[in-house]
Amino acid sequence: MSLPAKALVQAAANSGLRAVSVRHSSQAPKVALLGAAGGIGQPLGLLLKQDPLVAHLALYDVVNTPGVAADLSHIDSNAKVTAHTGPKELYAAVENADVIVIPAGVPRKPGMTRDDLFNTNAGIVRDLAAVIAKASPKALIAIITNPVNSTVPIASEVLKKAGVYDPKRVFGVTTLDVVRSQAFVAELKRLQSTVRIHTFLCFQGHDASKTVVPVVGGHAGITIIPLLSQVTPSTKFSEEEIAKLTPRIQDAGTEVVNAKAGAGSATLSMALAGARFANALVRGIKGQKNVQCAYVASDAVKGVEYFSTPVELGPNGVEKILGVGKVSAFEQKLIDASVPELNKNIAKGVAFVKGN
C-alpha cells in the first residue's frame, strides 16, 4: 500500500474500469474495508459482515485478501463479500462505496508512540486517498490509521488537491477512546458498588452498556480528553478519581501495546470501535441521524482546524458539530493544552502532502 499515489491511480486507469461514479446509496450500502487482511481488518471485517445494514462488503489489501474474503463469505448474513488485492484492484474496491473504512498501516510496538508510525502510515493514507478521490469522491471516509491527528489532514489535503474535498465526509475514528472510557468508568463504579448500598441511578451507572462518556480533542496522548463531567447517567467522581482515570484513558493504547509485548497493538477493541462507527455512518446515510464523537474539520475550539467532539451524523456525513458543551475547569485546561499539540500534528500531515 505504500506505492506512490500516481502509480496507484495509473494502475486503476490501466485496469479499464468505467468512469467515476458518485453513487451515495441508502438502499444497498457498500462498505469498503482497506487493510482487510491485517490485525484490525480481519475482526473488523467479521463485524461488518454481520451488520444487517451492509449490503456489499468490499475487502482490499496488498496480500491475503482472497482467503479473508472466502472465510467471511461463509457466514450466513446478507452482505455480499468481494476480494480485491493489490494496486490494480484498489479502484474496484472503493468504486461506488458509500463508506470507506481505513485501518491499513503498521501497528505500534512497545516504546513507540503513534507519531513514530508517521512516515509509513502517512504514505499509505495519502496513496489510498488519491484513488478514493478518483473512484468514490462522495464516499464517507473513516480513518483508523494512526496517527489519526495527522492522517485525517493528510487525506483532506489529497482530496483538496483533487478538487473533491468535502469536510463533512472525512472522519478520524476516535470511537475507541469512547469505548475505553465507558468501560473504565463502569468498571470503577462497579467496584465501588460492592462497598455501598445501590440506588437505581447508581446501578445504571455501573452498566457499561448504558454508560456514555463523550471524548473530545484528538486521538493521541494529551489530546484525548474524556469529559467525565458529562457522563450519562450522571456520575460523580472525586478529584483523585479524575486524576487517575484521565491519564489511564489517554494511555490505554500503550497499556495494550505493552501487554501484547511486541505482538501488536489494540486490534479487537479497535475493530469493535471501527464497526460501531461504520454502522453509525451507514445509519446516517439511511436517514437515521445519530450522534458520535469523531475527529473532523471543526470550528468547535478556537485556534485549531481539526477537533473531535460529538457530531450529528446524517445522509451527508456531518450534519451538525455539537461542540464540547459545558466542561469543568480541569477539562478546559486539558482542551487548552491539546491545541498546540494538535496544531503540530495537523501541520505535520499537511506538510507531508505538500512536500510530496
Automatic annotation (TrEMBL):
Keywords: NAD, Oxidoreductase, Tricarboxylic acid cycle. The active site is at residue 219. NAD(+) binds at residues 35-41, 61, 121, 144-146, 270. GO terms for cellular component: mitochondrion. It catalyses: (S)-malate + NAD(+) = oxaloacetate + NADH + H(+). Residues 174-353 form the Lactate/malate dehydrogenase C-terminal domain. Residues 30-172 form the Lactate/malate dehydrogenase N-terminal domain. Its EC number is 1.1.1.37. InterPro entries: L-lactate/malate_DH, Lactate/malate_DH_C, Lactate/malate_DH_N, Lactate_DH/Glyco_Ohase_4_C, Malate_DH_AS, Malate_DH_type1, NAD(P)-bd_dom_sf. One of its GO terms (molecular function) is L-malate dehydrogenase (NAD+) activity. One of its GO terms (biological process) is tricarboxylic acid cycle. It is an enzyme of class 1 (oxidoreductase). Substrate binds at residues 108, 114, 146, 180. The keyword Oxidoreductase applies. Belongs to the LDH/MDH superfamily. MDH type 1 family. NCBIfam families: MDH_euk_gproteo. Homodimer. This is Malate dehydrogenase. It comes from Caenorhabditis remanei (Caenorhabditis vulgaris). The lineage of its organism: Eukaryota, Metazoa, Ecdysozoa, Nematoda, Chromadorea.
